[in-house]
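Bench log, entry 3. Co-assembly request; chain sequences pasted below exactly as received.
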Amino acid sequence: MATPVLDKAEAEAQAASPYITVTFRVRRFNPEVSGEAVWEDFQLEIDPKERVLDGLHKIKWELDGTLTFRRSCAHGICGSDAMRINGKNRLACKTLIKDINPEKPITVEPIKGLTVLKDLVVDMEPFFQAYRDVMPFLITKETNEPTRERLQSAEDRERFDDTTKCILCAACTSSCPVFWNDGQYFGPAAIVNAHRFIFDSRDEAGEQRLEILNDKDGVWRCRTTFNCTDACPRGIEVTKAIAEVKRALITRRF
Amino acid sequence: MSTTETTAAGIGPVEGAAVYNVDNPAPVIEAPRKRTRKTPKSTRGNFELYGWLFMRLSGVVLVVLVLGHLLIQLVLDGGVSKIGFAFVAGRWASPFWQLWDLAMLWLAMLHGCNGLRTVVNDYAERANTRLWLKALLYTATVFTILLGTLVIFTFDPNIR
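Structure output for the full assembly:
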């Protein structure tokens, strides 16, 4: 048993230093060294109120400069640093260490279903190909340049408000079991971005986009596992958006 | 020192020796069936839509048909011990039960076939694997449906 004096000293020491020791277990892959991906542990002294991204920065800046990952704005807007943290797709810049049980090692892996190029960096090209394939831009039939802005009622804007929040981080698509097995599936992110224009009253190519998503690799491959909704760092109801596209396809047909 | 290196080169990589380097990087593991610019575009068919709808509608009908079937066969009137040739012959004497069993056969087989088709589509990576698994699936489905239909319509209670 420690004396009361020691207890007090310990408490003071803890109050003075917010730092705790956290183990980061990072999935490393460097094709220039080995063909095998391996787990590597890093011990960090870090404030649990900091984010996983801060931990990765600390590793890269102070422990091992070869650690490779994407990040740009570091504030949850650019969508560069989606990764699989403790087995769940999240943005490293929006995940606080205290929220993911720092007593145990924190595992950090690249997102699944896309080719790993180095450490946490994956080839996003198939993801963006699916995005391009749904034509994520305004299409109107009038050929003349408009002379004033395209007005829209607040209700019409509200219809697709949820899907405008997408930052294309690929957390949803790379959490989808159908996408893991068959990358030909458009994936939740592409469908979300199609939804954003299909239900926009100003857009006139909804029919075309519905036709694209009616394909064998389109919305009908969705198994409603809700992985995408759970993974979305922006809180978009992804599965609901996919269901709305399904409903639009059925009501269009019947 | 030098002898170790020559043996190592002769028998391939040994533990600790670097096989891959900057000029000779390891191959990355490609995802199966990636979407590329060459991925075929829309086929403009509604097959997947009908397939999806069929699964939902047949599922609802099958809940009634199958649970009713199980209730009659296994629970009511003495349970499973009553089932015999005579029991089946007695039920199939009525066109209602013939129709019931026919609907159950077709819906369950097509429902299961479509379900397995989506499983094959999801999990079989190579084009040839897909082709053969689906060929096997469709053959088994058609055979079972045709045989079952034949039996329901040509059933002879006086057969010896």
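Chain A has two domains: 14-122, 125-253. Residues 14-122 of chain A form a domain with the Ubiquitin-like (UB roll) fold (CATH 3.10.20.30).
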